[in-house]
Design a protein that fits this description.
about 675 residues; alpha+beta; Butyryl-CoA Dehydrogenase, subunit A, domain 3; Butyryl-CoA Dehydrogenase, subunit A, domain 2; 2 domains; six-stranded mixed β-sheet; binds ligand L4TVUTBJ; binds flavin-adenine dinucleotide
């Protein structure tokens, strides 16, 4: 049998209806149709070809992306694509471009932090791409600590302008996407100074380049920050550096929803919290969570298909060897990642609802849920990106040696994905934000009943006393038992941290000293939410033959895998006995056997095109080995039998006089 037959055979074993599962994955029949249409549009358009990327130099890579972006923008207009369709188009094109910053950060910053008047002026210009903007917050010397930024915006009362200035080398803006060569404008974050007094960091709309000839405006020095990790992935983007030498902008280009500066130089705070200045980051963190499930589903699709084709050992008489997918070790590394992709998918759908709700509230100045939403987006961003980056690398290893080839699609996917652990809030820094929220919630338990995602902490006093009642491996299939275990562990970790914090001289000293434990408690809290979201999703009506049952198995795999991985926490907090932890692991093995017949069908449900996967190992048809050969033969080194440099550098070594060597 060939790879093609193996996958056909695997597909015939599926115990659920794949077409309905595709809809469950996409979220709705309408969402599925949009994704499917955009995926095919991209896959069938030769401009969006990706296989030549690894061979391109930096300048060609960049220009190639400019060309693709221009073509995509033309399609958006010619085909009258909605914003949702345009986002999927961008997703399937699969190439970081300046438009990411324009649509994910520049426009949301204008919309979230601008006054009505500012929005009226700037948003239409941005949405029609008459101006192209980026988000210039990070500096050479400061990224995570936004309040530590050094760029200054000094108000000049006489001219009614702000003077934007980079006072030091470390104040150079460093990283903003599209800044080096493309963007005409930026939201520049700077310390506001009026009459020598500092008023904190604010956003300012600064024009960077001439709209006529694209040259940098006077006083602004722009450049690229250099090549990044991987080759053909993030190097398509011109992440840039900018220095400002007393650049003047009109007063009305400070984003003034949160606070205003009057013509007279008076600083006025409106009744909105200053954290609203951080709202753009909340918005994009939510997008990043949704991207995590997409990236992880891509990696597991490649690794699962290849694992069904690859055979090793198991036959001593020349018969077929064992599919590596049948090894329990392979299953225990791969299936939790398949389950995680689904878990993150449902978590991101839920987060989107939470975010839509807070956005509507913020518009009418209701800020009550902002701290919870900030904690959720920051925590989920950290949890999902860390697990996805690790998961992609695990999938590469699951594909053995061939996983290391660029043609497997996995090295480039990892290089593209891994900065998500850093950008938009470094992951540990984000967990510490969750920790602040947890500590406040637990410390306030006497006065305030927690709601929403923290509601379970309202039962903390009970959860720290109760013990797990599981007696058999079967008991671990009960969602109530699973959820209580996660809640008890998280509550015990949070309460334990708070008790120890009280032993320090000051809360700041305690927080710094216990920060590792606090980060772990935050992760445990986020896992409660992801697990409970998955469980709640299964309580909804899920049509289709066997679809709900297959998802139930995955939900249990996800939860019990986490329980096994973090069993140290579950045991140390005293909720579980070692016997109960071991029963969970027994159940996990049984669950892997239930996933096995559905493995290929599950990854088919992601509906990924071969274009999007860009992987010889993950091809839908399974025709792996002939295509690996074909891809290898395309390498420029295979253009001729004798490569450049052989005559010059190798032949002289071969022809050296042997008596000169002692070897
Ligand atoms: C080929 C192309 C095709 C083209 C197609 C054309 C068509 C295109 C159409 C559509 C395209 C769509 C594109 C989609 C693409 C999607 C891709 C998405 C990829 C995105 C790429 C992202 C790039 C990355 C960008 C960046 O990285 S920007 C920089 C981000 N920086 C950070 O995140 C900095 C992190 N630091 C912080 O957030 C903060 O400083 C801190 C650490 C959270 C705060 O620290 P500190 O304690 O000092 O806080 P304070 O400032 O004092 O504040 C204290 C209180 O405020 C609370 N707080 C903090 N943050 C927030 C918040 N965000 N919201 C609410 N509250 C917040 C904090 O908890 C404190 O509260 P308290 O009560 O405890 O006091
Ligand atoms: C591909 C990419 C694209 C980017 N695009 C943009 C962009 O468009 N616009 C923009 O403004 N920025 C952008 N950035 C910058 C990005 O937002 C920052 O790099 C990020 O916020 C992390 O900040 P940092 O680099 O200062 O890391 P640091 O904060 O210096 O982190 C270094 C280490 O210190 C630790 N650390 C930091 N603070 C604490 C603390 N309080 N407690 C414990 N540990 C701590 C971190 O955990 C980490 O291990 C981009 C970055 C990348 C990689």
């Amino acid at each position: 049998m060939e790879g093609v037959d193996y996958l056909r055979d695997e597909r015939s074993k599926a115990q659920f209806d794949v077409e309905t599962m595709k809809v469950a994955w996409a979220g709705s029949p309408e969402a599925f149709l949009v994704c499917d249409r955009m995926a095919k549009l991209v896959a069938n358009d030769p401009v969006f070809e990706k296989f030549s990327k690894p061979m391109l130099g930096r300048k060609e890579l960049f220009k190639n992306t400019l060309r693709k972006t221009a073509h995509a923008w033309k399609l958006v207009n010619d085909l009258h694509l909605t914003e949702e369709e345009a986002k999927w188009l961008r997703h399937y094109i699969d190439e970081p471009s300046y438009t990411d910053l324009q649509w994910e950060m520049f426009v949301p910053a204008l919309e979230g932090q601008g006054t009505e008047e500012q929005k009226k002026k700037w948003v239409p210009l941005a949405k029609t791409m008459q101006i192209i903007g980026t988000y210039a917050q990070t500096e050479l010397g400061h990224g995570s600590n936004v309040q530590g930024l050094e760029t200054t915006a000094t108000f000049d009362r006489q001219s009614d302008e702000f003077v934007i200035h980079s006072p030091t080398l470390t104040s150079s803006k460093w990283w903003p996407g599209g800044l080096a060569k493309v963007t005409t404008h930026a939201i520049v974050y700077a310390r506001l100074i009026i009459d020598g007094h500092f008023y904190g960091v604010h956003g300012f709309i600064v024009q960077l380049r001439s709209l006529e000839d694209h040259s940098p405006l006077p006083g602004i020095t722009l450049g690229d920050i250099g090549m990044k990790f991987g080759h053909g992935t993030y190097n398509t983007m011109d992440n840039g550096v900018a220095r400002f030498d007393r650049v003047r902008i009109p007063r009305d280009q400070m984003l003034m929803r949160v606070s205003q500066v009057t013509k007279e130089g008076k600083y006025m705070k409106s009744n909105v919290p200053r954290q609203l200045g951080y709202a753009t980051m909340v918005s994009v963190r939510q997008t990043i969570v949704s991207d995590a499930s997409k990236a992880l589903s891509r990696a597991v699709c490649i690794a699962t298909r290849y694992s069904a084709i690859r055979r090793q050992f198991g036959s001593r008489d020349g018969g077929p060897e064992t599919q590596v997918l049948d090894y329990k070790t392979q299953q225990s590394r791969l299936f939790p990642l398949v389950a995680s992709a689904f878990a993150f998918r449902f978590a991101s759908d839920w987060l989107k609802l939470l975010y839509t709700d807070v956005k509507q509230r913020l518009e009418v100045n209701d800020f009550s849920t902002l701290p919870e939403v900030h904690a959720c987006t920051a925590g989920f961003k950290s949890l999902t990106t860390a697990a996805t980056a690790e998961g992609i690398e695990e999938c590469r290893k699951l594909c053995g040696g061939h996983g290391y080839l660029i043609s497997s699609g996995l090295p480039e996917l990892f290089a593209f994905y891994v900065p998500a652990c850093t950008y938009e809030g470094e992951n540990v820094v984000m967990l510490l934000q969750v920790a602040r929220f947890l500590v406040k919630t637990v410390s306030d338990l006497g006065n305030k009943q927690p709601v929403g995602t923290a509601a379970y902490l309202g039962r903390a006093s009970l959860l720290v006393q109760k013990n797990c009642v599981v007696q058999t491996a079967e008991d671990w299939l009960n969602p109530i038992a699973i959820l209580e275990a996660f809640e008890a562990r998280a509550a015990r970790m949070a309460v334990g941290c708070c008790q120890r914090l009280a032993e320090f001289k000051s809360p700041e000293e305690g927080f710094a000293e216990l920060s590792s434990d606090l980060a772990e408690a935050s992760l445990a809290h986020c896992q409660v939410i992801v697990v409970s979201t998955f469980i709640r999703r299964l309580q909804q009506d899920i049509p289709g033959r066997g679809v709900k049952q297959a998802l139930e198995v995955l939900c249990n795999v996800y939860a019990l895998f986490l329980l096994h991985k973090h069993q140290g926490d579950f045991l140390a907090t005293g909720y579980l006995t070692p016997k109960q932890a071991s029963l969970a692991n027994d159940q996990l093995r049984t669950l892997y056997s239930k996933v096995r017949p559905n493995a290929i069908a599950l990854v088919d449900s992601f509906n990924h095109t071969d274009h999007y996967l860009s992987s010889v190992l993950g091809r839908y048809d399974g025709n792996v080995y002939p295509k690996l050969y074909e891809a290898a033969l395309k390498d420029p080194l295979n253009d001729s039998d004798i490569a450049d440099g052989i005559h010059q550098y190798v032949q002289p070594i071969l022809k050296q006089k042997l008596h000169s060597s002692k070897l």
